[in-house]
Write a structure and sequence with these properties.
about 200 residues; mainly alpha; two-stranded antiparallel sheet; two-stranded parallel ribbon; 7 helices; 4 strands; about 65% helix
Length: about 200
């Protein structure tokens, strides 16, 4: 019995936890290597590199915030993941933790506001509003699905991530705000090239 307990302890001590800052550090190193190789082959274009770095770092930060930390290899903690799913929109209005929910709401909105601007700077594509919103919604829902998969596989560890319909709604509000901020900006400074 003692040997069994010891083997489990060793196994747990060998598990690896990848935190958001670890992921970002790895991403930055890999990204810099890839860009250096491409610059040597294709030459250096300042705006292209700057806008590309801004967009890719922004996406990496979103991934780090929403999908990390993770634990490898995953371990079954025998926890019900159903409590980590919320399909009730605006249920936080009757929640006692009002301050926390307000911060979460503001965070979910703000994190998506820069997406339109950084996307346009990198790709220079005038995406119609409807298509832009559908693509954004698909990406946001994909993140929620991955979070749920991390829960049921226990990649997220003992601290389950909340899969919340409110996150989707407020993320989309940030997407819409970001779109119209970009629209106003282009009309204000590039009147001869309005966005379609």
């Amino acid at each position: 019995a003692k040997a069994t307990v010891r083997s489990k302890t060793i196994k747990r001590s060998q598990r690896m936890k990848i935190n958001p800052h670890n992921f970002l550090l790895i991403f930055i190193m890999v990204y810099m290597i890839i860009r250096l190789v491409k610059v040597r082959k294709q030459g250096f274009k300042f705006k292209e590199e700057l806008y590309g770095a801004m967009f890719n770092l922004y996406v990496a930060i979103l991934i780090a915030i929403t999908l990390f930390p993770i634990e490898l290899p995953p371990e079954n903690y025998h926890i019900s993941v159903q409590n980590a799913v919320n399909w009730h929109a605006f249920n936080f209005l009757s929640d006692e933790s009002e301050q926390i929910n307000k911060l979460n709401m503001i965070g979910n909105i703000c994190m998506m506001v820069p997406f339109k601007t950084l996307f346009e700077l990198k790709f220079n594509k005038k995406t119609p509003f409807g298509r832009y919103c559908l693509a954004s919604l698909a990406g946001i829902i994909s993140i929620e699905i991955i979070q749920y998969m991390e829960n049921i596989t226990f990649l997220s560890g003992i601290n389950l991530r909340i899969v919340d319909i409110n996150d989707v709604l407020f993320n989309m509000l940030g997407v819409v705000i970001g779109y119209w901020l970009w629209k106003i900006f282009t009309l204000r400074f590039f009147v001869d090239k309005p966005e379609s």
